[in-house]
Fold this sequence. Notes:
Elements: H1 12-22, H2 26-30, E1 44-48, H3 51-56, E2 63-64, H4 65-71, E3 74-78, E4 85-89, E5 92-96, E6 102-104, E7 110-111, E8 113-117, E9 123-130, H5 133-147, E10 152-169, H6 179-186, E11 187-204, E12 215-222, E13 228-246, E14 248-252, H7 257-260, H8 269-277
Parallel strand pairs: 1-14
Antiparallel strand pairs: 1-8, 2-7, 3-4, 3-8, 4-5, 5-6, 9-13, 10-11, 10-13, 11-12, 12-13
The structure holds zinc ion.
Zinc ion binds at residues 76, 85, 217, 219, 230.
Amino acid sequence: MKGMKRIKVYHGLSLILAAGIFLTSCGSTAGGSASDGSSADREVINQVSLLQGLTFGDYNGSVPVSRLKELGDIGIGTFDALNGELIMLEGTVYRAASDGSVEKVADDETIPFSNVTFFDADEVISLSSIDSVNTLKSELDKKVHEIGDNRFYMIRADGTFKSMQVRSELPQTEPYKPLATVLETDQTFFNYENIKGTVVGLYCPDYMSSLNAAGWHFHFISDDRKAGGHVLDLASDELKVSIDRTDNFAMALPDNEMFNNFDLTIDQSDDIKKVETGED
Ligand SMILES: [Zn+2]
């Protein structure tokens, strides 16, 4: 597919160790005791687990929502047992559930996978005539190319969406199946027209492709907080896009048997493309 980046999984563990060398604040941030944004490092993308763990079927929550709020005020992810799509915006954690409803999530619910940071807009741009999610990606790619392809970015895109297609998924029961298998039967889709809201987006550089999906990953929540999910497609005449360049990365790995025993050398690139875009 045009604009898609090929995802390749290398030896997961060796890459994590290599990454650790570069992570300036990994230990202090992921394990720190900051209780609000004022004392936390605002320039860190905090990741819970690997996307590759999630795609293998590790839906075991490892980090509580309360902890996630110490690590950021904006982000995306999912919940224990794959119970819906996570959208964090302005410090509130929402679930876009499989039935299309949206709710605030309790602090003791746990997260198997997510990326959050504290949002500081470094640049604000407006984009017009966005006719698809791929157009949005390529416009944002141009901007990222100016600032630097090899960095992390969190963005929020605010406006009215002429169309918005999102998905969520049904909560799972153990033994957990791989994500691509789950989505074949347990995915739910919702289409909205002329809906006001915010797209929260994460950009991971290419070298992150063993730990997450390289490129863009978008979740949506409506202004009235009644609709949301993982974005499959969208269109908008005018969007205000705020971009937060973030130069640090920290990761909290889960400690459970499933994760400990994954063979992360297996190439999951096709599965990741399928789960991210809904396309084969
Ligand atoms: Zn998603």
